[in-house]
Amino acid sequence: MSTFSIGVDLGGTNLRIAAFTQEWERLKAASMPTRVQAGPSAVLDDMCSAIRELAAEFAQKRTFAGVGVGCPGPLELPSGRVLTPPNLPGFEGLELKTELERRLHCPVVVECDANAAALAECHAGAGKALGFQSLCMLTLGTGVGSGIILNGHVWHGFSGMGGEAGHVPVYHDGLLCGCGSRGCLEQYASATAIARAGKKLVLAGSQNGSATVTARSLAEAALAGDPEAQKIYDEVGKALGIGLASLVSTLNLPLYVVGGGVAAAWDLFSPAMFAALEADSYIYRLSKPASAAVPEHGKTNVVPAKLGPDSGLLGAAMLPFFE
Ligand SMILES: [Zn+2]
Questions:
Q1: What DSSP string describes 274-323?
Q2: Fewer beta carbons below 10 Å: N end or C end of the chain?
Q3: DSSP letter (8 states) at residue 22
C-alpha cells in the first residue's frame, strides 16, 4: 500500500495544508487565512479540522505517515515549541508539536519553515536536479530564512536554531533588525528591506508612483531600465554575497540555493552577489565552477531555487519521512 503524509505551512498571513504521496505528488490542498487575531487555539482548530478531512479522504487507500508542520522560527526542536515569531504575535511559547499530537492522535514533526523549504529543494528541487544531498538554502521573503541540509537531513544545531543565517550581520553597526541586532542580512535582502529602500526613493522623488512600492514593482522598474531601482538590487546582491561568503567559507557545502519571492529577481541581483562572494570568500575563489551559471560536481555552486513558493509546504510533508 502506498504512503501519504500531510504538510502544513503555517504563515503569518496564510495557513496552507496539503496531502502528498511519498513520491511528492500533491493529492489535495486546502488554504485559508491564518486567524492570528483570534489566537493560537483558533488557528489550531482550523489546522486540525483541515488535516482530519484530508487524512480521512486518503487513509482508506494509503498508509498515513503523519503530519509535518513548517512554522516561522526560531523554534525549540525537537520539542516543537514556538519561541518568538515576529509574524505570529500571541504564539510565544506555544507547544505546537505536543498540542497537535494531543488533538490529532498521530505523529507530528514541527520544523522551521525555512528548513522545510531547504529539505524540499534537496529532495525535489535543485539538489535532486543537480545530484546533491547537502545544501544550504536562503529564502528571501518577508524576512530572510535559511536552512542547512546535510546528507538529506536537516541540520538542527543542538536546540533547533541551526541555520538562522538571516540574522548573521553583514554590516557592522548596520540597520537595526527586529531581532535586536544590527546589520543582519534580513535588513538588506528581504522583500521588506527592498520595499523599504524603494519607498525612500519615492520620497526622494526619483521614483514615480505612490508609496505602494514592493520588491516586485521595483524589480519591474529595474528591468525597464530604471538605474535607481537597479541600484537597490545591486545592494541586495552585495549583502547576499557577503552573507554567502561567510557560509561558503564556514560550511564548504557543494550547493547554495537562493529561493523565496525575491529570488525571481535573480538576474538583477546575482551579478553583484557573485562579485561580493568572490571578493569575500577565499574558499569560493578556490572552489568556484568555471562558470557560475553551469554547476559542477566537486565545486561550490550557487543557484536559484527550482521549486516555487510551495517548497515550504512540500518540505513540511517530507518531514515525517526524514525526521
Ligand atoms: Zn536580525
A1: HHHHHHH-HHHHHH--SSTTS--TTS-EEEE-SS-TTHHHHHHHHHHHH-
A2: N
A3: T
In this structure, what CATH number is given to the domain that contains residue 71? Answer: 3.30.420.40
Tens-place pLDDT, residues 216-270: 999 999 999 999 999 999 999 999 999 999 999 999 999 999 999 999 999 999 9
Q: H or E stretch including 77?
A: none
Which residue segment(s) compose the domain that 49 sits in? 3-118+312-322
Domain count, the chain: 2
- Residues near ion ligand 1 (CB < 5 Å) are 167, 177, 179, 181, 184
DSSP assignment of 172-211 equals: TT-SBPTTS-BSBTHHHHSHHHHHHHHHHHHHHTSS-S-S
The answer to whether the beta carbons of residues 198 and 219 sit under 8 Å apart is no
Shared domain for 39 and 152, answered yes or no, is: no
74 alpha carbon – ligand 1 mean position (Å): 11
Query: What is the reported pLDDT for 209?
Result: 56
pTM of the model: 0.94
Distance 29 CA to ligand 1 centre (A): 33
Q: Is-contact 264 206, C-beta < 8 A? A: no
Q: Is 113 a catalytic residue?
A: yes
Ligand 1 midpoint to CA 21 (Å) = 36
Q: Which of 45, 46, 113, 267 is catalytic?
A: 113
- Is the domain of 192 the same as that of 248? yes
In a domain, 27, yes or no: yes
C-alpha 257: how far from its chain's center?
10
Amino acid at 176: L
